[in-house]
Structure prediction request, 387 residues.
Amino acid sequence: MSADRRVGVWLVGGRGSVATTALTGAAAVGAGLAEATGMVSMRPDFAEAGMPELGDLVFGGHDVVETPLALRAARLVDDGVLPVGLPNALGAAIEAAESEQRPGITGHDARTEPKAALARIVSDLSSFKSRHDLQRLVVVNVSSTEAPVEDHPAHQDPTLLMDALERGLGILPPSALYALAAIEVGAAFVDFTPSVGARLPAIEALAEAHEVPVAGSDGKTGETFMKSVLAPALGARNLKVRSWAGYNILGGGDGAALADPERVQSKLESKGKLLEDILGYPVEAPIRIDDVRDMGEWKTAWDHIVFEGFLGVRMKLQFTWEGCDSALAAPLLLDLIRLMALALEREERGVLAELAFFFKDPAGTTEHALHRQYEMLERWVLQRVTA
Prediction:
């Protein structure tokens, strides 16, 4: 592993299922024990872009739970997410990541002691970079979904925001404090959740001013991925979509988190934004999410679509999506880490709309059609390869 090619990866929610699957998968692919199936950045088209290898990634993170990564990995084997025997074969890599886990910032910390919470995150990130002599660091939020943040005037202006934190005003949730800390230490920041993260004008301005890239929000892994393919197809055929209802059941940590009416609102808003942007007109599109603990790490989505054809004839399309969320999310997470490392190397700054392909509610653009998002991504990745 070349020292100048290593990239630090700090996962907020570092002991969760997605984080554990991602770091285990990175070690497995890096060691030649698994294929990079599901990783967009591993497509032959991008081979010459100069992204870091998975073996060059150094993992650490924050979490509010204390379950060791080895135990989490064992549970994921039991749930059919990780192959039997893989965590044992990669014990050294898992233990190395476990040694870099630190206590996370809670909502209570953010509300009552925001200045101290921010300082602790900055200290942990700086120490991690120093310990491993890392020139590049990517911070990714894969923690539980937060409730929507209440508007505050300081969210619009960087000076007002930093002054509010200095005065101890708890106006930012943990995800936004992590975004600020990443910016302060010169790290790229990605929000893989629908939480606010860097999605405030003041924080986006700070990222631009500090010359670091940010991206988000809410990883597009399943049902919304299918929407971003099917809705453009229906639109291209000039078939009018009358309604699009979605029903989701899932278990695990996400299911428990989204059982909270306030926290699920962030997810519903994120999932519900794309249809009107793609089709150009409002669509009746109710979405429901239920926690079914027996589902464990798996989820099922059922969509019912009513569309209108020639002479006003009504027709229907239904599909069922069944998948393992961690196995779907982990390769995209590794893609984003590699891409943000590339952005740091290229000295990109501010919101990277070109990474919209990976998100339900992409920052910096209203483009939701998957094929157009891929074209944006491809142009951005290859811009200097073909120049």
Remarks:
- The longest helix spans residues 325-345.
